[in-house]
């Protein structure tokens, strides 16, 4: 044990302005910053939350009001302190906070000045302001007894019994160097506000569905439910409880596009405007969405898993195990549960691919009169078994048709390939039964498969085949017949090239 009483000490306090600059670099964007402010309103048991803003070039303001329990003067001062609560402290289940930092880091990430105005039931309203310019000047962790004097901020609070307003101004990150009449900056600002609205509708969808009202410029935000509960044709996997029920996992396989109305299909694209981006895990901490569509490093996002979304519910008891970050947009499964979570995901993913594969099989059946094209053809020579490359196979045929000076070389190479197939070895291995044969392209990137299918499809369409015909033909070509799940993604390539 060190005897501290015998040792000289000196202060090594954080330098206020550089520390605040560090807060600014946490990596929030407008969406995650507003969500963090709303977290506090929900923790304060608000029933209504209003997100308002007024574009005015460099004097633009954003203010967020709630009708939660509010804060007394002393509580506001405490709330303004960075790190006002210990991250190790156990919080109630309703509390969405964590580090005692969110209000400050989220606000400073967007603006240089923010004011907290609040009142508790039966009390007078009180206010305090953090001003980065003043901190730079005073070099001290001092807040100001100041509030911006525009009446519109307080209109809602005045009518409430209790509640809080957070006002952001000098929003330099978003409105820097834009004039009041700068139409492009204005359009950009409205665009990010719009995407923030969608983000909020997603992150807090469970709260909104349970009766919380979040208004965006006085219009109610519509919740976005990733699992589209209530839509016909959803396959719901049973819930699995892990870690004594502290983690609940449930897979959803959403319906194929052909089973959805165009409106529902668009709805499914979600705030990221893409089915592919929205596949993966959805991690909820106390019903608040932290991660929206991510495979957590377990798998890659691929189009044929588009229909797979997995719900993962956790509580705030295990924040440290889950590595929840300050801006609450990250959560990493604890290593001891990773395997189990991954196994459940694999199950759901397999079912999701099956939706596409099943449709592929139907297409293949509708065109059985087509020849089947294997790459290798079997034949017997002098009583011995040989294989040769099928010259009618489209890839090989194209290669041979090409006006190409090295054609003889290619033929020659083929000959060598054919003559050197290790048939005896294949058979010995087969009989030993030690190694089972993989399917083509198993375990390596499937990109060449998809690209070749798309290219072939594009050529067939250009040559006047109907989409159905082209797909049926492709479904009868080896090894594409093992990848029927891609048949549904052939049009995308043609559309993208067309644009
Ligand atoms: N809208 C609000 N209503 C009531 N109390 C609030 C509000 N916003 C912040 N607070 C108080 O300020 C504290 C600090 O908030 P914050 O910096 O976001 O950290 P955390 O949410 O992790 O506690 C909260 O714990 C809460 O006590
Ligand atoms: Mg908070």
Q: List how many beta strands DSSP finds.
A: 15
Strand content: 15-25%
* N- and C-termini, Cα separation: 71 Å
Which structural class do the helices and strands define?
alpha+beta
Q: What is the fourth-level CATH superfamily of the largest domain?
A: Histidine kinase-like ATPase, C-terminal domain
The neighbouring-strand order within the major sheet is: 4-3-5-2-1-6-7
Give me the CATH fold name of the largest domain: Heat Shock Protein 90
Which ions and ligands are bound to the chains?
Answer: adenosine-5'-diphosphate, magnesium ion
Question: Rg from C-alpha positions?
Answer: 30 Å
Number of helices: 17
- Return the CATH class of the largest domain: Alpha Beta
Summed up:
The chain is an alpha+beta fold and 499 residues long. Helix content is 37%, strand content 17%. Helix 15 crosses helix 16 (467-474).
Report on the architecture of this protein.
This protein is α+β, with helices and mostly antiparallel strands. It folds into 3 domains: 16-220, Histidine kinase-like ATPase, C-terminal domain (Heat Shock Protein 90), CATH 3.30.565; 235-356, no CATH class; 376-498, no CATH class. 37% of the residues lie in helices and 17% in strands. It has 17 helices and 15 strands. It has helices at 16-24, 30-43, 73-80, 102-110, 132-138, 152-159, 172-175, 183-203, 205-209, 262-268, 335-365, 394-401, 407-419, 423-432, 447-462, 467-474, 490-498, and strands spanning 48-54, 61-66, 113-119, 126-131, 163-169, 213-216, 219-220, 235-236, 240-242, 247-253, 280-285, 288-294, 308-314, 376-381, 384-389. The strands form 3 sheets. The chain has a 7-stranded mixed β-sheet with strand order 4-3-5-2-1-6-7, with helices on both faces. Helix 1 packs across helix 4 and helix 11 (335-365) crosses helix 16. The chain is elongated, with a radius of gyration of 30 Å. The relative contact order is 0.09. Bound molecules: adenosine-5'-diphosphate and magnesium ion. Magnesium ion binds next to helix 2 and helix 4. Magnesium ion is lined by residues 36, 39-40, 97, 102-103.
């Amino acid at each position: 044990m060190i005897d501290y009483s015998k040792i000289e000490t000196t202060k090594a306090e954080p330098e206020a302005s550089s520390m605040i600059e560090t807060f600014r670099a946490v990596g929030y964007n407008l969406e995650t910053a507003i969500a963090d402010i709303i977290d506090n309103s929900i923790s304060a048991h608000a029933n209504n939350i209003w997100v308002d803003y007024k574009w005015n070039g460099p004097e633009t303001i954003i203010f967020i009001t709630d009708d939660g329990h509010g804060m007394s003067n002393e509580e506001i001062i405490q709330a303004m302190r960075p790190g006002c609560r210990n991250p190790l402290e156990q919080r109630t289940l309703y509390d969405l906070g964590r580090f005692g930092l969110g209000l400050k880091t989220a606000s400073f990430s967007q603006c240089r000045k923010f004011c907290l105005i609040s009142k508790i039931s039966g009390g007078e309203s009180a206010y305090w302001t953090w001003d980065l310019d003043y901190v730079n000047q005073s070099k001290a962790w001092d807040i100001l007894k100041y509030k911006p004097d525009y009446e519109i901020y307080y209109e809602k609070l005045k009518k409430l019994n209790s509640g809080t307003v957070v006002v952001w101004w000098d929003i330099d990150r978003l409105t820097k160097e834009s004039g009041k009449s700068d139409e492009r900056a204005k359009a950009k600002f409205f665009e990010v506000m719009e995407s923030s609205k969608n983000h909020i509708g997603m992150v807090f969808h469970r709260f909104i569905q349970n009766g919380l009202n979040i208004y965006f410029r006085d219009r109610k935000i519509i919740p976005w439910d990733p699992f589209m509960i209530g839509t016909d044709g959803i396959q719901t996997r049973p819930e699995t409880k892990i870690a004594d029920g502290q983690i609940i996992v449930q897979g959803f396989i959403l319906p194929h596009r052909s089973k959805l109305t165009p409106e529902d299909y668009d709805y499914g694209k979600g705030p990221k405007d893409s089915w592919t981006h929205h596949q993966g895990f959805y991690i909820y901490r106390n019903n608040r969405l932290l991660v929206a569509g991510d495979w957590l490093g377990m798998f890659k996002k691929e189009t044929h898993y588009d229909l797979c979304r997995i719900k993962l519910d956790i509580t705030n008891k295990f924040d440290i195990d889950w590595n929840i970050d300050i801006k609450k947009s990250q959560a990493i499964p604890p290593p001891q549960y990773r395997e189990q979570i991954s196994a459940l995901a694999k199950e759901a993913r397999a079912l999701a691919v099956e939706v596409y594969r099943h449709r592929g099989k139907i297409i293949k059946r509708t065109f059985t009169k087509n020849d089947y094209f294997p790459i290798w053809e079997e034949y017997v020579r002098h009583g011995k078994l040989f294989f040769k490359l099928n010259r009618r196979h489209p890839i090989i045929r194209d290669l041979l048709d090409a006006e190409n000076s090295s054609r003889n070389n290619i033929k020659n190479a083929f000959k060598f390939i054919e003559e050197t197939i290790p048939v005896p070895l294949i058979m010995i291995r087969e009989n030993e039964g030690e190694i089972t044969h993989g399917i083509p392209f198993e375990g390596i990137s499937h990109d060449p498969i998809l690209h070749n299918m798309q290219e072939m499809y594009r050529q067939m369409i250009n040559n006047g085949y109907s989409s159905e015909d082209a797909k049926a033909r492709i479904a009868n070509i080896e090894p594409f017949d093992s990848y029927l799940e891609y048949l549904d993604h052939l049009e995308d390539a043609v559309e993208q090239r067309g644009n």
